[in-house]
Structures are given as C-alpha cells and as structure tokens.
Write a structure and sequence with these properties.
By secondary structure, the chain is of the alpha/beta class. The protein has one domain: SGNH hydrolase (Rossmann fold). It has a 5-stranded parallel beta sheet with strand order 2-1-3-4-5, with helices on both faces.
Length: 213
C-alpha cells in the first residue's frame, strides 16, 4: 500500500486555486511502480491531497490528518506485505510551524503504528518503507503557504534516513529520482512520476528481499 498525499494521488501542478487536474491512470508513480514490479504484485494507491502525517489542518480540515486515516486503511486492505509512507510535504506548510525534525518524528509515529499492527500476512506487521518526498520549491500559487519549506524539505531526507535505520524500515529518497514541477513547486510532472515509480520499484524489491533474509 502506498500511503501518501496529492503526489501519490497524481495531482498535476496547479496553476490556480481549484485546479483539480490529475495525471491519468498508468502515469502516476504507484502505477509505474506496479508495472515495473510485474503482474504478480497488487499495488494499492492511497493518496489523499493535502494529507499530513500527524496534523489536523485548521483550514483544510481534520480529515487531512494521516494518523487518523492510517488505522482504517491498514484494516481495510490487510493483509499487506509492505506499506510505503511518502508524506511530509504538507506538514511543512507555514501554518503548522513544524521543523524538519518535527515532521520526521510525525512520520516515525506512523511507522510505529504500522509496525505495531496485525495488518500483515498471518496477523504479523507489514514491512515499512519510508520515502522522502521530492523537495519543495517556494513558487507559484503555494509560495506563501509553503514559506520557509524549501530549506526544511532539503533537511528532511537525512533525518528520515536515520529514522528508517533505527526503526528497521526501508528508505528511499524520491528527491534523488526527480524534482517537483516548478509551476507550483509541490506537485510532479508525468516524467517525474515515471522516474519515481521506477526508483520505488527497485526500493520495494530491495526491502522485501531484506525481509526474507
């Protein structure tokens, strides 16, 4: 299961408020990853635009809090071999005032939720793969909302890598595969989805091979 935000959903770079365009099926990174993994894999894309790791958004609504959604999704989709967590971008919004460390600790809380669940095969816990999102650019219609986010998003991958090491989760930095679309500084182009999807397929294979050892 791919547990993420608008970039897992496939939202295209937004040029104006209310721009609801979405990349077609087959072009979103979970679909690209599924194609690369092959027909024997069942990839579930759970991307919610605006989703945070742990914050209830005072403007967009408390339902954006990923911590509240996660237990429901773990139960509804079980058994799960692996959960990919690609969150953190929305937690960097200026309205939350969170440091990169705070954002990473919120993601660690989600990892603990997954690792403490019985949503895996035969009542075990699923494996976890943390994916650092592509780094934010402060531009376009989101420039003010994400003021100060660029520097924090640049610091986030290194902190998430440390969290992955101490929790036993896998780790992949999606920002090494692709950059965000400069139109809005948040979302991904079709080319970026393709690159991230292929990188994540490699990371998934690597993580599950490690789990079998």
């Amino acid at each position: 299961m791919c547990f993420g935000d608008s970039n897992t959903h496939g939202t295209r770079a937004m040029r104006f408020w209310g721009d609801r365009r979405r990349h077609p099926r087959g072009l979103r990174w979970p679909d690209i990853m599924a194609q690369a993994l092959g027909a024997d894999w069942d990839v579930i894309a759970e991307g919610h635009p605006g989703r945070t790791a742990v914050f209830a958004d005072p403007i967009e609504g408390s339902h954006k809090n990923g911590q509240l959604a996660l237990p429901v999704l773990l139960e509804s989709h079980r058994p799960l071999d692996l959960v990919i967590v690609m969150l953190g971008t929305n937690d960097l919004k200026a309205r939350f005032g969170a440091s990169a460390t705070d954002v990473a600790l919120g993601i660690e809380r989600l990892v603990a939720e997954i690792s403490g669940s019985d949503a895996g095969p035969d009542g075990t816990a699923p494996a976890v793969l943390i994916a650092a999102p592509a780094q934010v650019q402060e531009t376009g219609i989101f420039k003010e909302i994400f003021a100060g986010a660029r520097e924090k998003s640049q610091a986030l991958p290194a902190i998430l890598a440390l969290i992955a090491e101490r929790t036993g989760a896998g780790f992949e930095d999606a920002g090494l595969a692709a950059e965000v679309d400069p139109v809005d500084g948040i979302h991904l182009s079709a080319e970026a989805h393709a690159a991230i999807g292929l990188a994540m397929a490699t990371a998934v294979r690597r993580k599950l091979e490690t789990e079998r050892e």
